[in-house]
Specification:
The protein is α+β, with helices and mostly antiparallel strands and 454 residues long. The chain contains eleven helices and 19 strands. Helix 6 crosses helix 7.
Length: 454
C-alpha cells in the first residue's frame, strides 16, 4: 500500500502545534544559574508583540533615532534634544532594575481629554507590560467624571467632595498629582475592581495597594480586598503628602472606606504588582497644560519621593488649537513656566513632549481641513523641547500629517468632531508610540547610567 503523505503531513503539523502549546506549561528551568527561556505561544500569535520586539533589528542594523541618525522604516522616532542621553538615564536604570527583579519603572502621563478614560494609554501600558512585565492600572483618582468611560478599571465612589485644577473655585487644600483633591464628607468610600470584560492581559489582578493622602492628625480607615476580612489601617500625619502600602495575595477588587474624623484628604490609590512598568494616567478634561502650575511643587515632589518617576509625558495643545495667534504666543510663555515647574518637581525624570495631534475644521471652501493653528503649536512644542533639552514625539506626523484626521474619521478611528480619537484610533497611536519607546530603550539598555552625567 502506498503511503498517504497528506495524512502524515496533517499528523506532523498537528503534533508540532500540540508541542508548542504544551511548552507554555513548562516551569522555568535554570541550568548553572542560567535560565532556559520557555515559549509563549499566545505571544507568538500576537502581532503587536512581534512588532515591538523586532523594531530594534529592522533592515539588519541597529537603528538610531531623532538627531542621532536615520529612523528605521515603519517607526516614528522620538527626537532627543538633551545632552548625553540624560532624558533616558532614569528610564534605563529602572528598566534594568526590572530585569534584575529589583524594582519598577514608572511613567507619569499628564494630558487632556485626548487621553482621558485611558485612551491611548490603555494599549500603551499593556504593550510595555507585556515586554517589561507588570500588572495593574497604576495610580487612580478617587473620583472622576469619566470613571465609567475607563475600560481598564471598574470604579464606584460615594461621599466625596472633589476639586480640580481646571475649575475656577480654588481648593481649600493643595491639589494632588492627579490635578484633583478628594475630601470625604462624613462616611465616604471608593471601590476599584478588575474589569469584568477583560481586554488586557496585564490587568488580571493586583498584589499591591498604595494609598496617597494628607492629614494633620492620626485617622483610621478600612481596606477590603475581594471578600476577605477588612483591614483597619492607621493614617499617620506628617509632610505635604503621605503614603500607606499594603502587600497581599492576588486580588481583583478593593474597597476603601473612611469616616471623617481626622480631617484627612486624599489624592488617589495605585493598584499594581510586584515588579514591572507602570503608566499613571493624569489626564484631565479641559487641562491645557499651564493648569499644572496650580499643583504645589512640594506635592509633586513629595509624590515622586514615593513613586520615583523615570519619565514624564506632557500631552497638550488641542484645547488651544482653536485660539488666536496672540493667544498662542501667550500659551507658549505659559508652557515655559509649566515645563520649569515639572523639571523642578521631578528632577531625575526625563520629559517627553507628545506633540499635538491633527485636528480638523471648516476651511474657507467649507471643506474640513487641518486647522492652521496646529502647525503653529507643533512648531512651539518642538521649540520648547529644544530650549529645555527634552524629548519630542510628533503625533501629527505619526498620524499621517496634513489632513490625517479625515482618514481617521473615515476608518472610525476618530469622532465626527474631527478632534478626539476613538479607542480604535487610540490603539493605533499607542502602537506607534510604544514602538518608538521600546526602540529607544533597547538601543540603550546596555549603557552604563550609574554615574552622574553632566
Amino acid at each position: 500500500m502506498k503511503d498517504n503523505f497528506l495524512i502524515k503531513g496533517v499528523y506532523t503539523i498537528s503534533g508540532v502545534i500540540l508541542l508548542l502549546v504544551l511548552t507554555q506549561f513548562i516551569p522555568d528551568i535554570r541550568i548553572a544559574n542560567y535560565p532556559l527561556r520557555t515559549v509563549n505561544f499566545s505571544k507568538m500569535l500576537n502581532p503587536t508583540f512581534q512588532i515591538v520586539r523586532n523594531c530594534g533589528k529592522m533592515n539588519g542594523r541597529i537603528p538610531q533615532s531623532g538627531q542621532n541618525g536615520p529612523c528605521p522604516k515603519g517607526i516614528f522616532c522620538i527626537e532627543d534634544f538633551g545632552k548625553n542621553d540624560k532624558n533616558y538615564r532614569s528610564l534605563i536604570q529602572a528598566v534594568n532594575a526590572i530585569r534584575g527583579n529589583k524594582g519598577k519603572c514608572r511613567i507619569a502621563f499628564f494630558g487632556d481629554s485626548f487621553t482621558e478614560g485611558d485612551m491611548i494609554i490603555a494599549q500603551l501600558r499593556d504593550t510595555l507590560q507585556q515586554v517589561y512585565g507588570g500588572n495593574g492600572v497604576g495610580f487612580i483618582p478617587f473620583t472622576s467624571p469619566v470613571s465609567r468611560l475607563r475600560p481598564t478599571i471598574e470604579h464606584k465612589h460615594k461621599g466625596w467632595t472633589t476639586f480640580h485644577i481646571t475649575e475656577n473655585a480654588p481648593s481649600p487644600v493643595p491639589y494632588g498629582i492627579t490635578g484633583g483633591v478628594y475630601i470625604p464628607k462624613g462616611e465616604a468610600s471608593v471601590t476599584f475592581r478588575v474589569p469584568r470584560l477583560l481586554k488586557w492581559n496585564s490587568l488580571k489582578g493586583y498584589s499591591q495597594i498604595r494609598l496617597f493622602y494628607r492629614t494633620e492628625r492620626e485617622g483610621f480607615a478600612e481596606i477590603q480586598t475581594d471578600n476577605r476580612t477588612p483591614e483597619r489601617i492607621s493614617l499617620k500625619p506628617g509632610g505635604y503628602i503621605n503614603s500607606f502600602e499594603i502587600n497581599t495575595a492576588n486580588f481583583q477588587s478593593v474597597t476603601f472606606q473612611y469616616e471623617d474624623t481626622s480631617g484627612a484628604v486624599f489624592y488617589g490609590m495605585s493598584l499594581e504588582g510586584k515588579e514591572g512598568i507602570y503608566i499613571d494616567n493624569f489626564s484631565l478634561r479641559g487641562n491645557s497644560g499651564p493648569a499644572l502650575l496650580k499643583i504645589p511643587s512640594e506635592i509633586l515632589s513629595g509624590t515622586d519621593s514615593f513613586q520615583h518617576y523615570s519619565l514624564i509625558v506632557l500631552e497638550f495643545g488641542l484645547n488651544v488649537s482653536g485660539g488666536s495667534t496672540n493667544g498662542l504666543v501667550q500659551y507658549e510663555k505659559a508652557m515655559e513656566k509649566t515645563i520649569e515647574h515639572i523639571q523642578t518637581s521631578f528632577p531625575e525624570a526625563g520629559i517627553l513632549i507628545m506633540g499635538v495631534s491633527d485636528r480638523g475644521g471648516k476651511a474657507g471652501s467649507g471643506e474640513i481641513r487641518t486647522l492652521p493653528q496646529i502647525t503653529t503649536i507643533r512648531q512651539q512644542q518642538k521649540k520648547l523641547a529644544e530650549k529645555y533639552g527634552l524629548l519630542y514625539w510628533d503625533t501629527w506626523e505619526a498620524m499621517g500629517g496634513e489632513n490625517a484626521i479625515l482618514s481617521f474619521v473615515e476608518k472610525g478611528w476618530a469622532g465626527k468632531d474631527y478632534t478626539h480619537l476613538s479607542f480604535a484610533g487610540g490603539r493605533e497611536i499607542a502602537k506607534m508610540l510604544s514602538n518608538a519607546l521600546i526602540l529607544e530603550i533597547e538601543n540603550r539598555k546596555k549603557q552604563d547610567f550609574t554615574q552622574n552625567m553632566p
